[in-house]
Amino acid sequence: MPSAKEVERMDDALYSAILYCARTPVKEAQQMRSDFLVRWRRRSLELGKREGDSCHVELLAELVADLGVVGADDLLENLRTACPMVGCVGYESLYPSAGPGVPELTTEQLLRRQSDVLARSAKAIRSDNPANKGAVWDSIQRELEAGYMVEVQVPPPNAVFLRRFVIRQVKADQEGCPVKLRPCDDGRMALVNKAVFTTTKVRLDTADMFAEVARLLAASSPDGSSFYSVGLDHKEAYRQLRARNDEVCRCVVAEDPNGAMRFFRMERLSFGEAAAVTHYNAFAKVLASVVRLGLKVPLCQYFDDFAAPCRSEDDKVLADVLELLQDILRTTFNPEKTTQGRAFRHLGLVFAVTAEAVSISLSGARKSGLVSRLKDVLARDSLAPGEAAALAGKLGFASTALYGKVGRVPLQPIFRRANSSSTFVGFKLGEPLEVALSWWVKVLEGDPSTFQRSVPVRAVQRGCAIRYVLLTDACLYGLGAVCIVLEDDRPVAVEYFSYAVPQGSGLPIHALEFAAVSVAFRLWFTGRKDYTVSVWVDNQTVLGNLVQGKSRTKQLLAPVHALWEFLAQARARVWFQWVPGDRNIADLPSRLEHRWSEVGFCGLRPRERVLEQGVVEREIANLLREERRFVRCASARLASA
């Protein structure tokens, strides 16, 4: 893995490419790229490509050395000799019960237990439905023809068995949401053999990173410039890298049409294997670095998706990038997924770059596809880990348009299910997951502007920056909050509210603390859009709920989601922070201290904000309703048990 200093140099390369594209005359930039391509095309012909290599490896090695690409030594070695399996074999899959009786097996010892793994594999394979078995067998035939795998009559002693199965990939952004059956060799998801895992952090250029690159390009370009973006997709990305099977042999197990178990050695990296993520991402990252340093194009990379913003005057960027990566380095891209345009689709989102702003939105087709999929899951009350992982990924991309880097949304229950190692049948949703999925349906079906976000190209000028500071507090008999209006960080107004909680409400203090925050937002910010606010609370439990967008307290789960929905629809920029109780100036109004209105604050006299009739009562009623619902659900589960 590259060091922190090497990662910093990678970022420098991207930043330098942005400035070059923005400030260099287009004709000069095109001539520089043309000269670079002519030079390396000539060198490509001189070296020649070795048969079976993933790309023109020796040419890539010369490019890496010439351009000063960092962190590529291990990759080049793997490209020359093939990629090894990374990680370890998980004995938990063979011995799922915990306790002192579970043997601690080494990898070598575990490899001798092939019969145990095969027995579990055969049982799982034979229980699969005929359609899935047919899809698996068809995929194996295609890969045999392409040379991606080789059949072996007798598995080698160092074989790690992976059961091939299919996952349902819903194309949420296509009309009718077609379902594609994709073969996968990940043993953990197959619930048979954990095979390999890795904790290596994979560094990716996310949608937010692409938006920031586009913003910097627009901010650094001459006035009046216009922009478009280009995108490329690596074809069969993992299959472009050869797999090494000398130490540990990747061996796929499948059933042929006659019901016999067959074994296939993987010659290329396998989709779903943890090691493939590490190896391929290193390869893709080096390719992106070569483009940034050699062609001076600010190419972003997210696994096998590549994208770059460009100035409209330069219409040769896509052709030049393809010539380098495809024609000279001999990697392969999907022509049908090679795109360019002003409204540019990338990572499930639509980006548009102008001289004033970078806009990010979720297409209508994508939203309707996600809603259809969520409703299907809710209707059947079941979500398996594999499906949860795919759903969490798509919703994660959608949240970029919803929140960006501000706040968090109800994704945790979905990720928790995706990472579940439980083998129970049915995968019932449960209350937290059901609430989270229902929240997403409600938000996706709501105001279309909720999933539209605009990032200004240039910072707001001094003299017109307005933001708010909100402090809230509660006790068993009162709620209170203080709102401070700042202009260029100077207080210009102070308001507060104070409310007496009816006796016998029965709500615990954490619920009242949350009610104070929720009521304050609805009092001061209903009808407002695109505001910035810092919220200070002195209750650690409520602070954690607000930051995470969820709550382990069932009573607060739905209300916290509702508050984040309110903030999302307002496109609010919110920061939650803890304040010690003895420094919280909202303490006085929450204790119904009327002398608060006589206290000066930065030379300003606090003004009381009168609550509308029923605002707090409705908030308290909602909390009580959630509490009663939780008690009913818990009682029903205890009775059924």
Q: What would a concise description of this structure say?
A:
This protein is of the alpha+beta class. It contains 19 helices and 20 strands.
Discrete helix count:
19
The largest sheet, given as strand count, sense and whether it forms a barrel, is: 6 strands, mixed
List low-pLDDT spans.
Answer: 88-99, 189-200, 460-464, 633-641
| Percentage of residues in DSSP E strands | 15-25%
What proportion of the residues is helical, as a percent range?
Answer: 40-55%
Write the layout of secondary structure elements.
Blueprint: H1 4-23, H2 26-47, H3 57-67, H4 73-81, H5 107-111, H6 114-126, H7 130-146, E1 149-152, E2 159-163, E3 165-170, E4 179-184, H8 207-220, E5 227-233, E6 249-255, E7 261-266, H9 274-295, E8 300-302, E9 305-311, H10 317-328, E10 339-341, E11 344-346, E12 349-353, E13 357-361, H11 364-380, H12 385-402, H13 412-418, H14 431-444, E14 452-456, E15 466-475, E16 478-487, E17 490-500, H15 509-525, E18 532-537, H16 540-548, H17 554-569, E19 573-578, H18 587-590, E20 607-608, H19 615-640
Parallel strand pairs: 2-6, 15-18, 17-20, 18-19
Antiparallel strand pairs: 1-7, 3-4, 5-9, 5-10, 6-7, 8-9, 11-12, 12-13, 13-14, 15-16, 16-17
